[in-house]
Amino acid sequence: MIVTFDKETLCAAVTPTMSAVSNKNTITSIEGICITANEDGTVVLNSFDLEKGIRCTLNGRVEEPGSYIIGGQKLNQIIRTMPEDIRIEVGEKMRARITSGKSEFTLNAMPGEEFPNMPVLDGDWGFSMPQCELRDAINKTLYAVASGDPRPALNGIFFRLHDNCLTMVSSDSYRLAICEKEMVLNDVISGDALDTTMIVPGKTVAELLKMLRDDTTPVSIRATAKHIMFHMENLCFFSRLIDAEYVNYEKFIPKTPVTHATVSCEALRSSLERAALVAEEKTAGQSKSSVKFMFNDSVLRVSAVSINGTVNDEIPIEMQGPDMKIGFNCRFLLDALRACDHEYIKLSLVSSLVSMVITPDYDKLTEEEIAAAARKLESRGILAERYTHLAVPCHLRE
């Protein structure tokens, strides 16, 4: 195999491919990138860690076609240091010669036939949507995905398609995030209306977020019973799905809140960032981060006490209902507020023992702002969007 690449083109292809290169496995072949050069000048890069994989297609000057596996980590490091166009040669002795200008490296290679078989990248159903909208939904839910939870379902994001509405849900038992986007589905692959559910691993979604662009370029989503695929221009990112049943998250949303407070999201976020300087406390190898909220007389009093000291703050709010005192994990609550993208949010509470519901407060928007937001969504094929965050209270030390 002999092929020459433009440096920037090769770097742009290898970067996302690295997300599926394994570095902790006894199978040597999946620690590398399989490079397949075709006679027509197209080159396919494949990486696959047996859970998720990448297939990236790019153009190169192919002098001799072939397929070989080269160590991913070293290849990525080498091409970034090269000065100009990069030439890769692999001969019968399984030695990859990588040259650029006067620079030359030699690495061990393996035949492409030893690369593990990847799943067929064609879904039973699918649709496409703007990358920026999928990116937005991930940003609103990824923070609440559990990591290493014994319940497999909580280690992923729950996707549900129903009546042209994409709902994404995540929860780690301490918080819950829901994002809904009602939209016009394009490039639909399905005999009937799409109505399905699946759980995508959190690690997969985190890697996908790095690849999505913040514009209206479409991303095509395809899925089977066991795999999901995301097609973006010359890139295909695929992953196994989590085979489990998701929790009935709707039953955890309080239905009868008695206290409602509207507050500036930025003001509350800034207050919690200040409180976090004191609230973080590590004892016996565990990290505690509790903050107390006092809703009283149109003022939200934020306070925290730890061995580090104390902090007190006040934020003006618009409040309806009885006064309320409740405590939260400061860091968990901050994560939820950072996922909110509205100027004003509504906090809804039942009691100090029931989760607080955080939603955007559309009543604070003017008619012009509502119309502008609607036009922006419509230009992206979005008919309506909603998001909800739940923060589970914690015990307060008096």
Q: Output the CATH homologous superfamily of the largest domain.
A: DNA Polymerase III, subunit A, domain 2
- Biggest sheet features: 14 strands, antiparallel
As a whole number of angstroms, the C-alpha radius of gyration is 25 Å
Mean pLDDT: 91
Q: What is the C-level CATH assignment of the largest domain?
A: Alpha Beta
Mind telling me which CATH architecture of the largest domain this is? Roll
- Contiguous low-pLDDT stretches (5 residues minimum) are none
Distance between the termini: 71 Å
Number of helices: 7
The total domain count is 3
User: The CATH topology of the largest domain is what?
Assistant: DNA Polymerase III, Chain A, domain 2
Helix/strand structural class: alpha+beta
Percent in strands: 35-45%
Q: Which descriptor suits the 3D outline? A: elongated
Secondary-structure map with pairings?
Elements: E1 2-5, H1 7-17, E2 32-37, E3 42-48, E4 52-59, E5 61-64, E6 66-71, H2 72-81, E7 86-90, E8 95-100, E9 103-111, E10 125-130, H3 131-141, E11 156-162, E12 165-171, E13 175-183, E14 186-189, E15 196-201, H4 202-211, E16 218-223, E17 227-232, E18 235-240, E19 259-264, H5 265-279, E20 281-283, E21 286-288, E22 290-296, E23 299-306, E24 309-316, E25 318-320, E26 324-329, H6 330-338, E27 344-349, E28 356-360, H7 367-379, E29 382-391
Antiparallel strand pairs: 1-5, 1-7, 2-3, 2-6, 3-4, 4-18, 6-9, 7-8, 8-9, 10-14, 10-16, 11-12, 11-15, 12-13, 13-29, 16-17, 17-18, 19-25, 19-27, 20-21, 22-23, 22-26, 23-24, 27-28, 28-29
Helix pairs in contact: 5-6
